[in-house]
Design goal:
With 559 residues, this protein is of the alpha/beta class. Helices cover 50% and strands 14% of the residues. It has helices at 2-6, 12-27, 29-40, 45-53, 59-78, 84-92, 97-106, 127-154, 200-233, 235-261, 284-288, 318-334, 367-381, 399-417, 469-475, 480-496, 516-523, 531-553, and strands at 160-164, 168-174, 186-190, 194-198, 267-269, 274-279, 296-300, 307-311, 342-346, 351-354, 387-391, 420-424, 439-449, 452-461.
């Protein structure tokens, strides 16, 4: 599934083949659930194949392989009537009954993880193993019988016959009973409270039993290796099956997502148009729950709607909208259903995004430098068939520099590249670029009332002329005194901006203008002024305006 998302398809025919397979699983709940249940039994078959290839698989791995191959055979039967891509996947599920049968016959049901301590081979698979195991089982009864016999012969009721890996078999006598030890006992080990001995009979039996154990472990290891080599010889078939199961897993995952998310099958073609009705962000809507996400339409094409300039306040949903368009296109070209009421996707050759702010301190790149580098990559590699998403380009530098760069980028894409583009910005001055062929404006609807603003999260045709920055800051919970001061500063900046200049940041509820020139003009009674008085007042106002000019020039770089 990750490979599919990293390498989406470019052929409408190949995309349609996947969509048809997903549609078949969506329509057949019984088959979908059977596939899902069967895949849960399989685990990571490619990882098991890798361990086989490198000679690292143990007996437990072979049992896991057997269970996976049995589940794959069951899935093959479930897909007996499948057509199209599902039918092709069924044919690639190799027949591995020979490997399954051998592992079932040869490997013990609960083998150890290590390979040199026995317990690997199933009872009845090999005569030699069965005979050597019988010797080991007889050893237990021999020890019990020998212990009873030696207690009777020596009169030592606490006498014990035991075994450890260092000293082998022994007869243990407490120090209180050492006087009763027969002469044929040979001392082997001294303990704090006891002595350990051997007899000629016990030594002879020990050699036979230990020899049997060593031979048994060696024989089991050889048989295990032979079984493993049979599995290794089938590695090509196993890998082919693993890849087919991986595709089946991806298709059923897309089908489950489509059912749970109420996705629709997109129409995919080479029309060059991206038309989405009531599209939704597949991740955000999962967090919001049913009905919590506001859907939006999208219409991009190669004619009059190539570049959309999106304006609107922060937090109103511009970035989410652009991301959802990119994700819907990506999902469609993976072969997935999409979160929308309907969608027609003209295949794109690449999706480029310039979203968010970051820096590269190690590489010596500032936020703005990194942003420009990403823009260069987009402008160098995008084609007419590409989808470009650009969010707030130019905000990392001064207002006029950023606005100039953003404007030039839009013009370059619109006139030279022609890629379908969503370009969000707070530079409302850029909305006049809709005079260019293929450029149009979108905005995010906001509802205003005396109590404040409400974001509707609806993307609609048109342009915004207000940024609502102070109001968004209030929604974010900044301290009230800070907000009051922000409004004062904003009013001062707007007053200095000059008549006729378009201001980027406007208030919803403008503060009363208190500039002295404006106040003086408002107080004049024009009907009762003589010509001389009017000239004198005009001279005074001109002098007041001249005092403001130097300050205004010094602020050209700011908002």
């Amino acid at each position: 599934l990750r490979e599919w998302f990293e390498q989406p398809l470019l052929s409408p025919q190949a995309i349609e083949a996947r969509l048809e397979a997903v549609a078949a699983l969506v329509a057949d709940e019984e088959l979908r659930e059977a596939v899902r249940a069967g895949l849960k039994k399989i685990g990571d078959l490619e990882r098991l194949a890798g361990k086989l290839a490198y000679g690292m698989a143990n007996a437990r791995d072979l049992l896991a392989l057997k269970e996976a191959l049995q589940a794959a055979a069951e899935l093959r039967n479930r897909l007996a009537a499948a057509e199209g891509l599902l039918g092709q996947i069924r044919e690639r599920l190799a027949d591995l009954t020979d490997v399954v049968a051998l592992i079932e016959r040869a490997i013990a049901p609960e083998p150890p993880a290590v390979l040199n301590e026995g317990g690997l081979i199933r009872e009845g698979y090999d005569e030699t193993v069965d005979r050597l195991r019988a010797v080991q089982r007889d050893a237990r009864s021999f020890i019990a019988e020998l212990e009873v016999k030696e207690r009777e012969r020596t009169g030592i009721k606490s006498l014990k016959v035991g075994y450890n890996r260092v000293f082998g078999y022994y007869i243990e006598v407490t120090k209180a009973n050492l006087s009763l030890v027969p002469s044929d006992y040979q001392r082997r080990q001294t303990l704090t409270t006891a002595e350990r001995f051997v007899t000629p009979e016990l030594k002879e039996y020990e050699e036979m039993v230990l020899g049997a154990e060593e031979k048994l472990n060696q024989r089991e290891y050889e048989l295990f290796c032979a079984v493993r080599e049979v599995a290794v010889a089938a590695l090509d078939r196993i890998l082919r099956t693993a890849r087919a199961l991986g595709e089946l897993d991806a298709l059923q995952s897309l089908a489950v997502a489509a059912v749970r998310g109420n996705y629709v099958r997109p129409q995919v073609n080479n029309s060059g148009a991206i038309i989405i009705r009531e599209g939704r962000h597949p991740v955000v809507e999962r967090f919001l729950g049913p009905g919590g996400f506001v859907p939006n339409d999208t219409h991009l094409d190669d004619a009059g709607r190539r570049v959309a300039i999106i304006t609107g306040p922060n937090m109103a949903g511009k970035s989410t909208y652009m991301r959802q368009v990119a994700l819907i296109v990506l999902l469609a070209q993976v072969g997935s259903f999409v979160p929308a009421a309907a969608a027609t996707i003209g295949v794109v050759d690449r999706i480029f995004t310039r979203i968010g702010a970051a820096d590269n301190l190690v590489g010596g790149q500032s936020t703005f430098m990194l942003e420009m580098s990403e823009c260069r990559t987009i402008l160098t590699n995008a084609t007419r068939r590409s989808l470009v998403i650009m969010d707030e380009v130019g905000r990392g530098t001064s207002t006029y520099d950023g606005m100039s760069i953003a404007r030039a980028i839009i013009e370059y894409i619109a006139t030279r590249i022609g890629a379908k583009t969503l370009f969000s910005t707070h530079y409302h001055e850029l909305t006049d670029l809709d005079r260019l062929s293929g450029v149009f404006n979108l905005t995010v609807a906001v509802q205003e009332d005396p109590r404040g603003i409400a974001f509707l999260y609806r993307v609609v045709p048109g342009k915004a002329d207000k940024s609502y920055g102070v109001q968004v800051a209030a929604l974010a919970g900044l301290p009230p005194p800070l907000l009051v001061r922000a409004r004062e500063i904003l009013a001062e900046l707007e007053a200095r901006s000059g008549v006729g200049r378009r201001v980027v940041q406007l208030e919803i509820f403008p503060q009363p203008e208190n500039h002295p020139v404006v106040e003086r003009l408002a107080a004049l009674d024009i009907d009762n002024l003589t010509p001389l008085q009017a000239l004198n007042i005009l001279a005074e106002l001109k002098e007041a305006v001249d005092k403001v000019k130097p300050s205004r020039r010094g602020k050209r770089g700011g908002r």
